Records
---
Amino acid sequence: MRKHAFALCTLAAAVSLALTACGGGSSSSNGTTPTGMVNVQVTDGPSDEFQNVWVTFTAIAFHTDPNATWNPADATWQVVQLPSPQTINLAELNNGTLNNLLTGLQLATGTYRQVRFLLDGPDAPLDASALATKDSNGDPLQWNDQVEYLANGSTTLLEAPLEIAYPTQGIQLVGTFDVVQGGTLSLAVDFDLEHAIVAFNHDGTTYFTMRPNLQYYDMTQVGSITGTINPADLCQSVAAAVSQATQCAYNLIVKAELLALDGSRHYVARQTTVDPRTGAFTLYPLATQDASGNPISSYDVLIRGREMETMIVKSVPVTAGTSPGGTGAAAPTSLPGPIDPTLNSNEYFAQFASALSPLSSGFAIFQQTPTGDVPYEVRWRNTDPFTGTFRNPIALQGSNSPLWIAPYSSSGLSFTTQTTVENEGGFTVADNEVAYYTLATAGQISEPLAGAGSTQTFTPVAPTLDNGVQAGTVNVTLDFSSISIENNCELVLARFASIIDTYNCSGLLSTNGGNNHGSFALTQVPAGDSATPVPGAYYYAYVRLWETGHGAATRLIVPLDGFIDLRSSTSATLNGSIIGE
């Protein structure tokens, strides 16, 4: 395997960090190019599927073309390498916490339309920053990108690699970023972990990957909402949550939701956790303008958790310039409280009855709809991209679990119960693929007849391609040699660090050390054609190999050279040569 090298430049100033970008790796500068300052912070939202998520960044690249493909030798990219790789725990960056990834970056003036966050390749050695970072057990990280999670129904913390798909191509952020001479552009980038982290089965254990969908905030146009849940109703430890010796709510997530442009549903714009010791939560940063510059004056705040009934506070105002800890005009909107949730242990589980299709990598949204309204997102679950189903069934509130709704009032919140359109314990489920497909409604589900603790299965509806997007085919030929012990093979098709589709190629392997060869096709891959190109329809591929029963020790990731171009064609060919170790 080959490690991709970057030729990048930095300029460090003595007190604050000052970085100067260079195009395509060139470190020369004549000092005459006008520049502006850029600050990049990282923030995140939570999930109840893991405790910690560490990611190690190596560089950031900027481009004026939103459709430019990444090439480290391309001089049109403005590339900045961090002084040293930086390992960040994304799970800690909620409740208003931000990490200063770059401060004082001097970037050539202009309008940039694309940013890439670059990471080490799968064969990179453990960086010093990861080695210096300790997990919750006090041990150094084992991987540059790592997830810490609880085993199902257990208090045992487990560690697993975060296998980011083709990380050397970077995680893409598209937007409009104006850098003006002498000015300062301050951005906060949200990785949105609940939607981004994907659990999958690797040789009988849980590993993780990403389906990043980065959002960003202009920090001059954001506000904040804060609140408190009564901590007496919250589990104060993992052991208390697992045992439920005294009933308590746990894994609370607070979501700031907005109405979709087509008016069909509410979507999550920002989310955070609740501190179980104090009950406090902070939603920050919250955008006060949409992408077109139209004002956003309020959010609906949804509060959900395990062992409790879901609550919504409607039309909570947000004001630009407000922030956590601010006073006077800068004080955040504070929900009167503390808010008392209604505890309810009646939960059931949901799982796909068959794999998501036509592509296996996607997600499902579990929604509830107040009478006379449109659905709100309550829960979200990504599919295991290698099976097309959930790695673990998802827990949902069952029957006798109404929705509690209150209009916002600064003088107090008055909650009343509403039976949803789906009825108590019911959910409207929508599913989709990762990119270029349209969200499909799979219908409604409800608590199974077997009652609390049982699992309801349902069949996902196949999403359809977006208007103007064609069904593409990738014709794959793989040649294997020197395969001695590996007897499992998966081909992964990726785009911008997200897995798009997979193929089980185990049947092509020969474990006698000889050569083997096989061909197959991936279909329904989003593509363009000559009449209607799709600029983002290009993909990268890699092969995963391992020996059954020794998946951790024998896991081998082999990136395949080049990219698969379906931007203006509905057919492409991929030829790969894989040499065992």
---
Amino acid sequence: MYHSRFREQTGPRPGSSGLLRVSIGAVLTIEQVFPNRVCGVLRTQDADAGFQACLAAVEGGVGSLEITTTVPSCFEMIRGLRASTGASYPIGVGTVWDPGAVLEAKEAGAAFVVTPVLLPEVAEACRQHDLLCVLGALTPTEIYQARLAGAQLVKVFPIAPVGGHEYVRALNGPMGGVPMWVSGGVEIADVRGYLQLGVRVVGLTSALFPAEALARRDMDTIRQRAQEVARAAAPD
């Protein structure tokens, strides 16, 4: 039973008519887990505001969510979000350091796991529990090693401080076939450029969930930003 503060929200389920119902089973594909190629990354200490913010984000058109382990009761939040949306949106667990957290993610109904750095033991746990694995990396060597470790996606993090679009463009020469997720300092205005460079998923944290909006519980702002993200990610 998920915590009462993450209880199922009443009323219509946002966008549930057009999206995959995410069940717990075999590993989902990148396209299934990230249907519109963007992912909202929630990192906050205010779990109640974060829960409402996630609902606002999917209402605005963001197709996937990552709840970091730094969020209080993160696994309970995932259960509550799945209940509130009819399991229509893929939800993952981020900032995973311990392979033991992979089983907790699976039991909560997560569709994917994200690490901040290269952790082959987490990739192995994801393989055992049939979860899509996103390993963090930064240098070309780390990116290569992440793929060897079994990551379906490699999270190039933090992308903005190392050059943003230009860094991805440089990587595309020798590593153009590597499926990449970028995050870390990404703004909404950057999304389309990354996708045009072939990035498979763009993760947005403060650009989608501004600290001031969470503090004010300003869900209209988050919903509006989600709409802007969805438009930026829409196919040309």
